[in-house]
Write a structure and sequence with these properties.
With 97 residues, the protein is an all-alpha fold. It has three helices and no strands. Helix 1 runs antiparallel to helix 2 and helix 2 crosses helix 3. The protein is elongated. The two termini are 33 Å apart. This is DUF883 domain-containing protein. Keywords: Coiled coil, Membrane, Transmembrane, Transmembrane helix. InterPro entries: DUF883_C.
Length: 97
Amino acid sequence: MKRVVDTTFEGAEKVKAQAADVLEEAARKLREMSITAKGEELKAVLDDAGEKIERLRAEAGHKVEPVEGFIKEHPLMSIVIAAGAGALAGALLARRD
């Protein structure tokens, strides 16, 4: 179980980093365009970024499937794990004050 969660977390972090890279690349391209850029050029940059984000979204969906399978197979354990994580987060946040 821990391996599934660790793998999914690592995958989510990878997808998040890739999404940030795609958005940074699109922003860079938009900054480099001249003010007089045509609408087609702007649309092409935005379409390219949108396609990359859709691919990342699909990849993220595949990374979540193992966790969903675990939750369906072990619902009680999943609830206990979620409650424990919530209690731990609450305790850590309470200590900050």
